[in-house]
Amino acid sequence: MVKRTILASAAILLIFSNPSLAEDVFDFYLHASESNILLNLEENVTVTIFVNLTKGVPTNVTLDGCWMGEVPEAKVNITPSKGMVPFTAKIFFSAFHKTGKFIYMIKCSGGGVTRYLNLTLFVTDLNIDFSINKYSFSKGEEIHISGKVSQDYVKEVNLNISCGDWYRFLNLPVKNRSFEFWYNISFGDPDGKWSVKVGSMDRRGILVEKEKDINVSNPPDVVRYKVIFLSPPKGAVYFRGETIDICAFVSDAGKGVKGASTNCVLPSLNRINLTETKAGYYRASYTIPWNCKTGKWFLSVESISDSFAGGRSTYIFVKPAKLKIEIVKPSDKVSGETEILVSLHYPDGSIVENASVKAISANGCTWLSYAGNGTYKGSLELGNGEKYMKVEIYAVDTYGNSATLSKIFYVIHGKTYRFDFLSVSIISLISVLALVSLYWARRIYSIRHLQDIQRELDEVRRLQKETVIRYYREGSISRKTYDALMQEYTKIHDKLMNEYAELLAKMKKKAYKGIAKGGLSG
């Protein structure tokens, strides 16, 4: 026992005196030349696997793998299948005979360590090929993009042109498997290395893309005009449906340039002509569509005369529109299974069709169906014993524009009568003491009515407190929703207090002084 203790202590002292022995444990990691591979039917591919040493003494490891999920007919060969870290291996996949997404998991183990790496292979029957008229351009020249697709089911391709975070995009129609596009490079566009990318989805939803690079530069002795954006402000935020005021000042040696051809290119490659309002000042307006791309928009303005040109770019941010939503019915009170009708419009008043609209209450979620003319309808289920029901409406159109609305409804339940022992006793006494029974019946009714009002007030105050917490502490509702809910709660609270005051006055008039001793707080 003493001997083992001495040996253990010696081992601990050895480790502390040589930290490298504790830290120098063998480990490695895997890396692939590409982990997401796109290939066509009947095409084979080879992927390089790097087995790199992280720490410790080089050790022999073994490579193998297996398919995860669906297994294709392709054969796999790993060469070499073992080696001393670090080393490189090749994984060869033979021709694939069916389309789809396939995952091959690589397992590498040795020296008490096991590492895994997944390779995802996307096999498609779609091929896209395109060409560009040349690969070095000056601003003011035209880029001609033309190409073909391999399948008839492709009706359009997506064209994306970018340089850093600057970008342009357009959906190009495909006719007889062919597409083409001409773009005149704006003097407001950036110079440098541009990426031109064309892509489309195959029938399985696999994205197929091809990419080429071009170089864009300023032509010598041409760029002379100075373009200043007066509007929109750089970094300004707009919502879909709003109108952008585009205004620029074009000068040469500090003086406004007259009669220049001036235009603005949008991210969608739309080109808007600017009109000269006075010497050097050019202006146009553009209304943002409901279905446009959101995010960062780059606007390129150029101004060209017979001999000289100039341009500049700015950016704004575009967000989804805030739809206008209104509950047409019910108004304030609901009872039984109640139909709900909601109208949905864009900010300019045009109706919203094909939107997803749902109503959420404590009793569940109800999806509303389109009823025509921008209205959506459904039904609400009421819970038992509820005095008030809060309904939240959520709506979103097919382009991502959305709206929310919350409203409190007063619930009217059918009258029910419950006979308990006290009620039976009172009814029995009526036959003997009619006046006394009438007095007690009125007193009991008044007490219960006051208790009902008290409970309703407590519920309204609870909802007010909950709304304050949701806005100020959680931030889960907007200021607009907060104001609307608090206004509705205040309205209900005042109504209940008035009802209480009226009842109390009647009771005092009839000398029921002891009934309201507890009073109402708040």
Could you tell me the mean pLDDT?
A: 84
Low-pLDDT ranges: 1-22, 415-424, 511-522
Sheet with most strands: 8 strands, mixed
Distance from first to last alpha carbon: 77 Å
Count of helical regions: 5
Backbone structural class: alpha+beta
Q: Using only CA atoms, what is the Rg?
A: 37 Å
Identify the strand order in the major beta sheet: 28-30-33-32-31-34-35-29
Helix content, binned percent? 10-25%
The proportion of residues in beta strands is over 45%
Tell me, briefly, the overall form.
extended
What's the β-strand tally?
35
Compact summary:
With 522 residues, this protein is of the alpha+beta class. 20% of the residues lie in helices and 47% in strands. The chain contains five helices and 35 strands.
Walk me through this protein's architecture.
It is a single chain. This protein is α+β, with helices and mostly antiparallel strands. It is built from 5 helices and 35 strands. The protein has helices at 2-17, 19-23, 421-430, 434-474, 479-509, and strands spanning 27-32, 36-40, 45-55, 60-68, 76-79, 82-84, 87-93, 100-110, 113-124, 128-132, 136-138, 142-149, 156-163, 166-173, 178-184, 192-201, 207-217, 226-231, 237-239, 243-252, 255-256, 261-265, 271-273, 275-278, 281-287, 295-304, 309-319, 324-329, 333-334, 338-345, 356-361, 364-372, 375-380, 388-396, 402-411. The strands form 7 sheets. Strands 28-30-33-32-31-34-35-29 form an 8-stranded mixed sheet, with helices on one face. A 5-stranded mixed sheet has the order 2-9-8-4-6, with no helix packed on it. A hairpin with a 4-residue loop joins strand 26 and strand 27. Helix 3 runs antiparallel to helix 4 and helix 4 (434-474) runs antiparallel to helix 5 (479-509). The longest helix is centred in the last third of the chain and has 41 residues, at 434-474. Mean pLDDT is 84; it is low at 1-22, 415-424 and 511-522.
